[in-house]
Automatic annotation (TrEMBL):
One of its GO terms (molecular function) is electron transfer activity. PANTHER family: BLUE COPPER PROTEIN (PTHR33021), BLUE COPPER PROTEIN-LIKE (PTHR33021:SF481). Residues 1-60 form the Phytocyanin domain. This is Phytocyanin domain-containing protein. One of its GO terms (cellular component) is plasma membrane. Pfam families: Cu_bind_like. PROSITE patterns: PHYTOCYANIN. It comes from Gossypium harknessii. Transmembrane segments: none annotated.
Length: 82
């Protein structure tokens, strides 16, 4: 029984009482597309207080590289001499 919780509930091992459905199949998928912190705890007995909890930090993806200037990529930086 894994619950997605807030940071405060994560720190205090507070299982949600708002009818939040736990992840129970063992094959549950979590969307990590948005940057930020995600907190999950085990809601069974005292497992969270014994350390069965997980904090995931999702970072922003790198910014795309700027498109190269076509003219500057086709010409050498200095004239070629022989």
């Amino acid at each position: 029984n894994v619950y997605k919780v807030t940071g405060d509930d994560f720190n205090s091992c507070n299982v949600p009482s708002n009818n939040s459905l736990p992840l129970v199949t063992g094959n549950d998928k979590i969307n990590l597309a948005a940057a930020g912190n995600k907190w999950y705890i085990c809601g069974f007995n005292d497992h969270c207080h014994q350390g069965m909890k997980l904090k995931i930090t999702v970072l922003d993806g790198p910014a795309p590289a700027p498109a190269p200037n076509a003219a500057s990529t086709l010409l050498p930086k200095r004239p070629i001499s022989r």
